[in-house]
Specification:
By secondary structure, the protein is α/β, with parallel strands linked by helices. Helix content is about 30%, strand content about 20%. It has 22 helices and 29 strands. Strands 3-4-6-9-10-11-12-13 form an 8-stranded parallel β-barrel, surrounded by 5 helices. Strand 1 (about 15) and strand 2 form a beta hairpin. The chain is globular and about 80 Å long.
Length: about 700
């Protein structure tokens, strides 16, 4: 295949101060959930991006000193020379693929509590931490500022020793430097507060200090918000604040500007609420304020959109975090004219959830994310089959599709049977719900790739019973028949179910709604799942004109969705559409006209009028076929497979990313020797023999 000439502009080299990027694909700093604790996992993840064609690959936020500690969130560190060796792992591997390596130094301010180090957090003034914890910063005096400048400079020198090509001054996202820039938070009366020139002074000094330290060997980048007034912007309308004046003072100092917005829920917005290229209105005025290269993000997956942004002069580099996670080889596929092979980001933010939980990030579309080093998985290659076996995969949801595709790529003869006419399982059904259309990409990518494999046979509308499985006589069988939502109230808050829930015709589950069976009258959606399904159900039913109330035992709507930046925008959407909201209440009973609720704190009960209940609580694995075939295997019946596995929701109901991972892992491990006691490499922090060091 040949590259589309319209995309040639994306492969032009671009100078960044003293270094040159080989193309315009720029992996901006993003968290990995590995940080300083897992340097090999981190290096393997970043190196894969470079191999995939990203010309610049950056670290996550990197602390220059123990007083900048974001525990429990994993971050990078450059505190001393031992950190240099850890970072050199990444830099060397990124260089091995011809890419530039960058490091983002961060000063925490009121964003970090220093739970690990117990150092006092430093701030522009003494103020409560933005984390909502009962700690405050110490107002920095001139001595503190001199020390912070020294720490930042020393970290830049360590970055140079580690082999980095780009070093960042991080002045956005409500960290310390953006607090100094703020006319609201910066109420200092010295030379670092008051006038605009004073408020930008520390940023200017750090840029100058860093450039002086690294000389002509490294480029200096600044990460900066296009909404410097610190407010607004959530609706996509630019709120420039003092951006123009600040860039008037600083515009020519660094070698590159990394432009974003302070609102994470917009910059990293879920596809449910935010589309591709959402920052265009913010970035559009930046070009007139500086001659230096500009990079920005926008969950870019379309090469046409990327090329258009460059042609319009909005940016010099296409920045990406999530698209580079979903497909580390996105640039190479565009370069080779294989656009249809891109695993497009679906904007679910499961990657962000991993880091928020202090765990290596994962991805719905890319099951190899964070497994590059510890399991040896590559997103574009897989070991050949271990035998000339035939494999039957029952169920073409996310787990079954991924298993069939990966098995087919290994060279196995695969039969994929799906009970319904359309492939995709829960992904296809859920993609019909409000805001979830882009989730179809999970299905579409895999179906497109499967249709190219002559060794994979696909049979839709093929419901298989145990006798059918035996008749296929496959050597190996994977059962991916999914799960069903329960209608008895069993969930996180009620492990016995809800005894009084009649009449049955007034009870619904998400499966009913997705199948077109809709309630009537006043609807109560009971969300004991706490992710997206409860709020999406409420929005969908309200969209049908039904009076809808969402009730949850949690103190917040979509509490687990806070890990994916879902919670706040989801609640606002419900309020805008007129959905009633009741938090911190359990559903006790329902008689067809009224639902009884109990306060989770006091136990006090109240009634709410409702004609129907939609229960979003938990799911039951649909594993009857698995259990029947297992019995046939144990009885030694003819046609029974050599191995039988449940995968995806049929094994353990979870998020879609877990189902995809389950299918991929099954395919990787079939006919291979896996040490069940040590199934992956453990990335340990190095313990030196001299305990005094």
């Amino acid at each position: 295949m040949t590259r589309d000439p319209r995309h040639d502009i994306l492969f032009e080299p671009v100078a960044i101060g003293p270094v040159t990027a080989r193309n315009r694909f720029y992996q901006v700093p993003h968290c990995t959930g590995s940080g300083w604790q897992s340097p090999h996992i981190l290096a393997g993840l970043r190196a894969m991006k470079a191999e995939g064609g990203w010309a610049v690959v950056n670290t996550e936020y990197c602390s220059p000193h123990p007083s900048i500690d974001d525990t429990p969130y994993p971050m990078a560190s450059l505190w001393d020379d031992r950190d240099i060796r850890a970072h050199a792992l990444m830099a060397d591997q990124v260089h091995g693929h011809g890419s530039l390596a960058g490091v983002e130094l961060v000063l925490g301010g009121a964003r970090m509590a220093n739970h690990l180090t117990r150092e006092v957090p430093l701030g522009v003034v003494s103020m409560p931490l933005a984390t909502g914890e009962p700690f405050q910063t110490r107002a920095m005096d001139r001595q503190d500022i001199r020390e912070v400048r020294r720490w930042h400079r020393n970290a830049a020198l360590r970055a140079m020793k580690a082999g980095f090509d780009i070093v960042y001054v991080y002045a956005t996202h409500d960290y310390l430097l953006s607090q100094f820039l703020s006319p609201v938070l910066n109420t200092r009366s010295d030379e670092y507060g008051g006038s605009l020139a004073n408020r930008v002074r520390l940023v200017r000094e750090l840029i100058e200090d860093t450039k002086d330290a690294v000389g002509a060997t490294m480029a200096v980048a600044v990460r900066f918000s296009a909404e410097t007034n610190g407010g607004g912007g959530g609706d996509g309308t630019p709120v420039p604040g003092e951006t123009e004046d600040m860039l008037g003072l600083l515009g020519e100092l660094p070698d590159l500007w990394d432009i974003n917005v302070s609102d994470y829920s917009l910059e990293m917005g879920l596809s449910r609420f935010v589309g591709e290229g959402s920052l265009e209105s913010y970035v559009s005025t930046i070009r007139s304020l500086t001659t230096k290269p500009i990079v920005s993000v926008g969950r870019f997956t379309s090469p046409d959109t990327m090329a258009a942004w460059v042609r319009k002069g909005l940016v010099d580099f296409i920045g990406a975090a999530r698209p580079s996670i979903a497909d580390p080889f996105l640039p190479k596929k565009i370069e080779e004219g294989r656009v249809e092979d891109i695993r497009e980001c679906i904007g679910c933010n499961i990657c962000y959830m991993g880091d928020a939980r202090g765990a290596p990030i994962r991805c719905t579309q890319n099951p190899t994310m964070s497994e590059e080093w510890r399991r040896g998985w590559h997103p574009e290659s897989i070991a050949s089959r271990g035998s000339a076996s035939r494999v039957l995969v029952v169920g073409a949801g996310p787990a079954g599709l991924e298993a069939a595709l990966s098995l087919g790529r290994r060279g196995y003869d695969v039969v994929l049977a799906e009970a319904t006419r359309e492939l995709g399982g829960r992904v296809t059904r859920e993609a019909m719900l409000p805001g979830l259309a882009e989730w179809r990409r999970v299905r579409d990518y895999r179906v497109t790739q499967l249709n190219r494999l002559a060794n994979v046979e696909i049979y839709p509308e093929s419901t298989l019973g145990p006798e059918d499985v035996l008749e296929v006589a496959a050597d190996h069988v994977a059962v991916a028949t999914g799960a069903r939502w329960r209608a008895d109230g069993f969930g996180t808050s009620n492990r016995r179910g809800i005894e009084s829930l009649g009449p049955r015709e007034s009870l619904f589950t998400p499966d009913d709604i997705m199948a077109g069976r809709l309630p009537e009258g006043r609807v109560l959606v009971y969300d004991d799942d706490h992710y997206y399904m409860g709020t999406v159900m409420a929005e969908a039913l309200r969209g049908q004109g039904l009076e809808t109330t969402l009730v949850t035992p949690e103190d917040a709507v979509s509490s687990w969705g806070g890990l994916t930046l879902d919670r706040w925008r989801a609640r606002r959407r419900l309020m805008e559409t007129g959905v009633g909201i009741v938090v911190a209440h359990e559903l006790v009973s329902f008689d067809g006209r009224r639902a009884r609720l109990a306060c989770c704190a006091s136990g006090e009960e109240r009634d709410i009028d409702a004609d129907s209940i939609v229960l979003v609580t938990s799911r039951t694995p649909d594993d009857a076929l698995y259990r029947s075939v297992r019995e046939s295997m144990e009885a030694g019946e003819k046609g029974a497979p050599k191995s039988l596995r449940r995968i995806g929701d049929c094994d353990a109901p979870a998020i879609i990313a877990a189902a995809v991972y389950s299918g991929h892992r099954y395919a990787r491990e079939l006919d291979t020797d896996i040490d069940r006691d040590n199934p992956l490499r453990h990335d340990r922090v190095n313990v030196e023999t001299n305990h005094e060091n």
